[in-house]
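Objective 1b. Sequence-to-structure analysis of Ferredoxin-dependent glutamate synthase.
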Amino acid sequence: MTIMQKVYWIIATLGNLVAINYLLNSTGLLPSLVVMATLFYTAVGYFDLYHSSHTLNRLYPVVAYLRYFLESYRVEIQQYFIANDTEETPFNREQRSLVYQRAKNVRDTIAFGTQRDLLEDNYLSLWQSLHPKEVSETAKRVQIGGPDCLKPYQASYFNISAMSFGSLSANAIESLNLGALKAGCYHNTGEGGVSPYHLKHRGDIVWQIGSGLFGCRDNSGSFNPETFKAMATRSQIKMIEIKLSQGAKPAHGGVLPAAKITDEIAAIRHISTGRDCVSPAVNPECTTPKELLNFVKTLRELSEGKPVGFKLCVGNPVEFLGLCKAMIETGITPDFITVDGAEGGTGAAPVEFTNRLGMMCLEAVYFVHNALTGAGLRDKIKIIASGKTASSFDLLAKIAMGADTVNAARTMMLSLGCIQSRHCNTNMCPTGIATQDPARSKAINVSAKSERVKNYHKNTLNSFFELVGSMGLDNPTKLKPHMVKRRTPYGLLMSVGSLIEPLQTNDLLNEKPLAGPWNEWWRMAQTEDFYSEDLYILSPAELSRPRKPS
């Protein structure tokens, strides 16, 4: 027997006899409480020994529950009492504190020097200029809209990324949208469709059309042009985004647990209650590159000329180049492409998909920027980076790698008061943000939280423009990949890039030999099917050839 099994039998026999004897020979409340405690311990222990399905309970009756109790608070114990300011993931204490401070409009400076190891492998940094400049007001917005767009949109450099009503509570959605209105940025609906809470405060909306076609599907689940047009032509809808995949779970459909599906959400999405809502992995309207582009054209026409683009997490580079070839063949280009990073996001996802699939945001943005440049398409299409963004440096790095503007999701949740408890998929969010429990969500004060969203957005952008100016630049469009420096394993600094060489305009169309895999990838790319074999073997070339500024 284990020690705790022996302890159990001692209490169940001798302990109960002593307690009963104590009760018979004493007066007052204490003897009764002692007898109740030993009898309760005996009953629970008996169940554990002979009926529990848990091995721990059988071997360690009663006290095993202490382990389960402590385990239920492991994340909070780790977060508050063990981890230092820079070691937690996905957002460490330093990053979360920065978001909280900027959201509350309080001091966000640090004292006594950095806590970071500046010689750490892959540590990113910048070189400042002795002649700092100021970014002009005219350079602080980004126009999104290609040659076929009739209603281009002036976007902020920093925006609220896709988070659905359903994943987030009604009050959280309202707070984000009112915050977007106050901040002058857009708010992406996520694939759950446009809800009344997205529309209530009139903040700019990017309507995301996911593979479930929520908000524009008929009774059979197919695309409904009339329903789409009725919503897309509303003045509050500024852009349309087709979701092909997302960084949290590329090649996997969106998942809304049954516990979060209320009657209201079911009505908005046109789905049933009582079971998980799992979107298909492939958008039914976009099964090939050419079908995707035709869908882009259809949505642009139905929305009366608003910017239309698509979102994806980049995987096999050949498949994205197939999209580029299809754009050239059809003459149809999206107005923007949202590049989601494999760092994950707010959505619940299988562990293997979150941990092992997709390109990270910086390398994906770098690749997409060069692919569009080499195909002669970059001037027609804006790139939106959607990845882990907490600070103005995170924002700057993505712009430098080729993005035109940036979306953030989890840090916008942090600005609302999220504490990174990681209960988003359980309906038990302790802050009322990622839940449909009305008792929890009503704790969110929409007016107050929207101010925090506005403050975080404003203070992060102010820091971003100041950081750009510190490099001697007066416009974020002048940022280039080589301006971001990376610490190598040899302790030296090198310009950030990739295993692939940067391309110049039309390099892929000129049929000239290109360094690295570009020629091989372009040759394998096809327009009739997304799938292409991953045949090219990447080699560690970053130290074997000189890097030239692009």
